[in-house]
Write a structure and sequence with these properties.
The complex is a heterodimer. Chain A is an all-alpha fold. Chain A is 69% helix and 0% strand. By secondary structure, chain B is of the alpha/beta class. In chain B, the strands form five sheets. Chain B has a six-stranded mixed sheet with strand order 6-7-8-3-9-10, sandwiched between helices. A six-stranded mixed sheet of chain B has the order 16-19-20-13-21-22, with helices on both faces. A four-stranded antiparallel sheet of chain B has the order 2-1-4-5, with helices on one face. In chain B, helix 14 packs parallel to helix 15. The chains are: A mainly alpha, B alpha/beta.
Chain lengths: 379, 510
């Protein structure tokens, strides 16, 4: 016997619940800060000021957010098709291979605005190809996409080590990374945009790939809600049986959705490589692929939510770094704990407070109707 | 009048602003069979859920045997001697009857003693009420009718004096239903009180002593069964006069539109569900497939519509053959003029999380009317959805509303509108009115007849024998994956019932 639910108004669904989840995450994090003997309120102030207090902080926050937008969108596209792409990390990492080759080949001959599109294509293609085998196995053999994509993360890591100690590395270098890209493969900074508002920035890696991320957010919205492909993906994601009934090919839709997801994951590699370090180095993705899962869940799989959630996680990264610097008792690991709590409450326990909020609204709001649950999909 | 077993006084229950039960007063006399009828959403199930402790009433009082009772959970209800037999059985399939009966009522840490005790108790109950179930049979090997008896035994074993049955005959053959009624009468004679929730008025007339009618959350009437008629009850349920029997003219059957040839289907376990079935449906006729649920009708429909791969067989659509064994594509069949209203509208025919307009193109989402290149033509889709909403009187008339928020009858209308408005040559419909209220049933039946009169070939599969009999021009009866007989619409219910139960009456008679 199912319990009746009250449907929430959109603002509560997309605004109130994430805020409650976040508040609880910070509350618990506050206790952890208290445990190590620091003042949680001061820690919160440092965190927020570190992320948004000065132009420098804002630029870094948005730089981190750029990568998370890509990885969040990647997870969301797959999730709309009922698939859990947990391999964004590997797809992003392997995309570094494509970017590296394009940049090393063209940075001396082409200007950045020609190298960039080539690198976008290379990154997207590598990411998409990397997910092709897991997607095919899911579609044809029923091998669970979660298992295969996570295994492909490890394969990607090995391939990248092989490439970075081998052909991508300059012959004379000891470091497992490419040479520094020339101007022709360095993306212009966007710091001046923040400076327009009067803030001062010494140096920050906030760059033009942020605009690409926003463009992708719009394109993902169009794809999901305005195209036939998106319609088919959503149909399959909600009900494989309904998709079969509607004449949608299971194989095709799984492979299409996963490849788009992989392409988006691949694009996240542009930001740290061409935008910041100007090389391809070991471990340059540094967990952003996994953060994308939390970003997508917290953003309720909607591009607008994902952009906002990505900025939140950018804030945690940037503010967290400041916090570790300002409060010695709070180590880098503490920051990971706080991020973990946010992921826990905003992602894994996303629905924990929902029944209470719904009960509250049920007693206030005029409509009582069923809600859909976020659907996990088996093989 | 006998003392009341249950009294409900001023029961109110709201979900949000929806008042599922409004000021309900009901008195159920001890030792009687009391029917509760009403359309879907009238509040019957909510009321019984309050009585059984699933929900708490917002206000009002429950008295059991004259004493005020506080029922906060099913355990409280059981302690008060109230038992419930659910529409969907709550049995562990791979346990024996005995194990299911004691489940949750074990008296010891070790099972052995409980089982021994239960066995003797069970034998007594079976003798007393003529329940005839082998205590050591495995549930999944029992037919549905017997599984239902296990549910009744479970309640009796827990000392139920008051038994609530929720739509008990939905899954039964007429013969099984008759047997159930005999058991219920016997229980009544032993002094038990029975509450029967149903929407089948015939059953109410056949077995109850008293009947209460619910409509839109209120109790509109309580009648002595002997002093009322089916017509009056139907009118009370819907609030207006309804046609219980479809009015239709003679069929003018034309050429064969749909021919199913040698169809064999196995399920995922390799069990043959449809066994070499062949039949034709001609233009301008409705062919009804009767049968007890689970005799291969569902699998047959799925195979004909291309959703499920067949082991062998083909369909001729308008004279062109389509093989069903290969990768038959529902889309291709649809393009050839086969429209399909699936049995399971919640998971197959609709995506409940979609807006209404999105569902009104499901399966036709590549149609040039609805797309511009790779994009959906949102305006065209919504205009089209609004047209269908008006034409099929779908309520609420909001094409942006989530489909899950429509009632069962309106959801079915969404599917029917989509499939019928494609102007298909062949329409196959599974369970056209399952979970649909009386008012909408009338509408759907009229539409199906209208399709027939336009010269379409219509194939209807339903477990509601009444529906098959009133709609069909020809009736095919399915049993154990085979078509065991063909009859005209004038065939008696008893005759069809025997066929449905696998008794080959004609052979026996000849």
């Amino acid at each position: 016997m199912s319990m009746p639910y009250a449907k929430l108004p959109a603002w509560a669904d997309y605004g109130l619940i994430p805020v409650i989840n976040l508040a609880v995450a910070f509350l618990v994090a506050g206790f952890v800060v208290l445990l190590v003997g620091e003042n949680p309120f001061r820690a919160a102030v440092v965190l927020v000021e570190g992320a948004f207090g000065r132009g420098q902080g804002i630029a870094f926050t948005l730089f981190y957010a750029t990568t998370f937008i890509f990885s969040g969108l990647s997870v969301a596209v797959a999730a709309h098709c009922g698939l859990f792409n947990i391999g964004g990390e590997g797809q992003g990492y392997i995309a570094g291979l494509g970017i590296g080759i394009v940049c090393l080949a063209f940075d001396s001959v082409l200007p950045w605005w020609l190298t960039f599109p080539l690198a976008i294509v290379a990154a997207a293609a590598m990411g998409a190809l990397w997910v092709l085998i897991p997607a095919y196995l899911q579609a044809k053999r029923g091998s669970h996409i979660v298992i295969t994509t996570i295994m492909f993360n490890f394969i990607a890591a090995s391939v990248m080590v092989y490439a970075l100690v081998g052909f991508l590395k300059p012959a004379i270098s000891m470091a497992p990374q490419t040479r520094t890209f020339l101007d022709g493969a360095q993306l212009p900074k966007l710091n001046w945009v923040i400076e327009l508002f009067g803030a001062k920035i010494r140096s920050a890696p906030f760059n033009i790939s942020f605009l690409l991320a926003l463009a992708m957010a719009i394109l993902v919205w169009v794809l999901i809600w305005r195209t036939r492909l998106g319609y088919e993906m959503r149909t399959y994601g909600h009900s494989a049986k309904a998709a079969r009934y509607a004449g949608i090919s299971e194989t095709r839709i799984i492979i299409m959705a996963m490849m788009i997801s992989g392409a988006l994951a691949g694009m996240m590699a542009l930001n740290p490589t061409m935008g910041d370090q100007h090389n391809v180095a070991l471990e340059f993705v540094s967990g952003a692929g996994f953060v994308g899962i939390a970003v997508a869940l917290m953003g309720r799989l909607h591009p607008v939510g994902i952009v906002l959630a990505a900025i939140l996680f950018g804030m945690l990264y940037q503010g967290g770094a400041e916090l570790a610097f300002e409060m010695p008792a709070i180590s880098r690991d503490m920051i990971v704990i706080i991020q973990g709590l946010v992921i826990l409450f905003a992602g894994a326990l996303e629905h924990m407070f929902r029944p209470y909020v719904q009960a509250l609204f049920a007693s206030l709001s005029p409509r009582s109707v069923g809600i859909e649950a976020i659907k996990g999909k088996g093989a | 009048m006998a003392q009341a077993a249950i009294e409900l006084i001023g029961i109110n229950k709201s979900f949000g602003a929806v008042r599922a039960n409004r000021d309900i007063n009901l008195e159920i006399a001890r030792g009687t069979i009391h029917g509760i009828v009403g359309e879907n959403g009238a509040g019957k199930s909510t009321l019984m859920s309050i009585l059984y402790g699933f929900y708490q009433a917002d206000s009002g009082e429950i008295r059991v045997g004259g004493q005020p009772a506080s029922i906060k959970s099913p355990n409280d209800a059981i302690a008060l001697g109230i038992g419930m037999v659910h529409q969907h059985f709550m049995l562990v399939d791979n346990f024996t009857v005995l194990e299911n009966v004691i489940l949750g009522a074990e008296s010891d840490a070790l099972l052995k003693k409980s089982i021994a005790k239960a066995r003797s108790e069970l034998e007594r109950l079976e003798r007393e009420y003529g329940l005839e179930v082998d205590p050591d049979a495995i549930i999944e090997e029992l037919p549905v009718g017997l599984q239902q008896r296990v549910e009744i035994l479970k309640a009796l074993y827990r000392g139920a004096e008051i038994l609530i049955l929720d739509e008990p005959t939905g899954v039964l053959t007429p013969a099984e239903a008759d047997h159930l009624f005999r058991i219920l009468r016997q229980l009544k004679e032993q002094g038990k009180t029975i509450v029967l929730i149903t929407h089948k008025l015939r059953e109410i007339m056949a077995i109850t002593d008293t009947v209460s009618v619910m409509r839109q959350g209120t109790m509109v009437a309580t009648r002595q069964t002997t002093k009322t008629t089916v017509g009056e009850l139907a009118e009370l349920m819907v609030g207006r006069r309804v046609l219980l029997r479809v009015e239709k003219g003679e069929a003018e059957a034309g050429g064969v539109k749909l021919a199913v040839k040698n169809l064999t289907v196995r399920d995922s376990r390799g069990v043959t569900m449809v066994d070499d079935v062949s039949f034709d449906v001609r233009a301008g006729e409705i062919v009804g497939i009767a049968g007890v649920a689970g005799n291969g009708q569902s699998e047959m429909l799925e195979a004909i519509s291309g959703i499920r791969r067949a082991v062998s067989g083909s369909v001729m659509l308008d004279g062109k053959p389509i093989d069903l064994t290969g990768a038959a594509d529902p889309g291709e069949l649809r393009d050839r003029g086969l429209a399909h209203v699936p049995e399971d509208r919640h998971h197959v025919g609709l995506v409940l999380a979609f807006e209404e307009n999105e569902n009104s193109i499901l399966g036709y989402h590549d149609d040039p009317r609805y797309v511009r290149g790779p994009f959906l033509d949102i305006d065209a889709i919504r205009d089209d959805a609004r047209d269908k909403i008006a034409k099929y009187d779908i309520r609420p008339a909001d094409c942006r509303l989530k489909t899950a928020n429509f009632s069962g009858g309106n959801q079915q209308k969404i599917v029917l509108a989509r499939e019928m408005e494609q102007d298909p040559g062949v329409l196959i419909v599974g369970q056209p009115t399952r979970g649909v209220d009386v008012g909408a049933i009338e509408f759907i039946h009229k539409r199906l007849i209208a399709m027939r009169d336009q010269g379409k070939a219509v194939l209807v599969v339903s477990v509601e024998l009444d529906e098959i009999r009133s709609l069909s021009d020809r009736i095919l009866v399915m049993f154990a994956g085979r078509i065991v007989g063909e009859r005209g619409p004038e065939a008696s219910e008893g005759e069809l019932g025997l066929l449905m139960a696998g008794v080959e009456q004609r052979e026996a008679a000849e």
